[in-house]
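Crash report, auto-generated. Payload:
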Amino acid sequence: MGKDIREDIAWAQINTDVLKSLENPRKLFWVIIFVALMMFGVGVGCEVYQYQTGMGVAGLNNPNVWGLYIATFIFWIGMSHSGTLLSAILHLMHADWRKPIYRFAEAMTTFSLMTAGLFVMVHLGRLWQFYYAVPYPNERWTWPNFQSPLLWDAMAIFTYLSSSVIFLYVGSIPDFAICRDNVHPGWRKKLYTLLALGWEGTDRQWRNFRVTYLTVACFLIPLAVSVHSIVASDFAMSQQPGWHVTSFPPYFVAGALYSGCAAIITLFIILRYVFKFEEYMTMPILKKTVRLTFAIAMVWTYLNWVEFATVWYSHDEVAKGVLIDKATGRFAPFWWAMNFCGSVVPFTMMIKRLQTNIPVMFAVSLLLNLGMWLERFMIVSPTFSHGYYPWTMDANYWPSMVQWGIVFGSFGWFTLLFMTFCKIVPSVSMYEVKEMVYHRSLATKKAELGLEGGH
Amino acid sequence: MSKRHMLALYNNFDEAEAVVRELRSTEIKGFKAADDLIVKSPIEHPEVEKFLGHKPVNVQWFTLLGATLGGLLAFTLISGSQANFYAQMKGGKPIVPIPPDLVLTYEMFILGGVYITVLGFLICAGLPAKRSALYSAKVSEDQIGLLVTVDDSSAATLRNIFTKHQALEIQEEAGK
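Recovered output after restart:
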């Protein structure tokens, strides 16, 4: 495998290349923004229609009380885990190849959580009553149910979102200072000056920065695991057939890491081209990300089969009925597509030649995420349309166009936020890439001199 | 005695380290390396700590405080809210159910830890701050800066040391 990054690249060059991305992206950037705006427009249109007409247009009804909104909510929550994986877990493991790509993964975490949060409100429908979910003393003497995983969810997601934003911001302060020192006077300079907080790179600042970054990273790892375990508890702690499975929390966490990693590959390829980051988002780094994704895909596949086996051997006839219905009923094409995309497609990642084939990996990463979205759809909908009693079954259930429209719009919303972020904030961490280059060249020199500590 | 600030820029850490070593071993009137020397660099380099001498970091105490307070606050608020179930019938269920409350306590433990850690970082790192007059954008690019505060009478000695080690640039400002 080649080197993750050129060791002779000058530090000043790193600044120049990354700062250029804030000013001169390829034309595709504007195409993406336009398409995302259109998609977002569709979503907003559907939401306005639903808001004005009533939740009936979403097609959510008894027994199908949860639909695409909750499935997509879980999908976006899952997507957010990749940032934590790259920033926090790989940071603690000293995997320095993550350095050129972790910033955009963190941004992905933040924006996917924001997108997920929207779905809670969209699903509620009556937005003006959202404050009922907030625990505060009130004259009604009513409190949210503290024993409900849904409340835990709200708390966990708020904690995760705010911690992720803080983590992303703190990690960007040295880069904001670089931007402040290099951009032309204007709104950007004012913004960067404000965000840099007067950072000068003193030994005192770096010392405290290191400990802070490490500490927040340590907090984020259990937090990320708890967030998706709690989302899994929304299902596993209920008595619904097919959901009451002990392995749901690890299954959800693995699925989250999986979809997040797949999304990193997608965005890696897009950003690499759009912002001309060929020098930093290199093929060896793509290869490592692909291998990591493959490993997580296999963990997910295993847990997927554990879930099936648990249901199958549980002798819970209704849960078994739901599983059989998934494989043979109305949802069968989606269920099989989920298994194909989630468990079979990743095997292309084993082929060395394909690991750095950009068109193939781009297509594979999209298919993996399609599989992961279908997984969430297959968790939510079949269970509701196949309840305990025949009169609770609704074999004809299908999400309405309004639901599909809002789901479609959420991808536009996420893309819009993400691409705008990459245009304003350096999506490659300049100081960390410098550190990477510095330490690697130092290690190479030491190795050449025959000293210990070769990389 | 009036003070003077001086900033010298170097090409790399090795050169900066050599200067710091000389400054530490030389007797200079009105200058103590531990207090009057600041190293500015474009990256975090652990070697700086070695040649500058150990300096304590106190952020972790903020973390401990934040996490503890966050957890305690969560449990107190939640169980306090649940206390109104003394007045409302709860159908035999525990008024303060410990396991579900622990989940929320855990989340607030992390939330408090993260928030107060970052607050501690800002306090300990002296941020937000006005940029000092002696600042070079080169420090955020690829050069290492040594900022010293020294008695006017010793400024020439320091300037000589900086020049001897081939400083790329020396900036000076009269202290206040």
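Post-recovery validation: Residues 1 and 16 of chain A are 27 Å apart (CA to CA).
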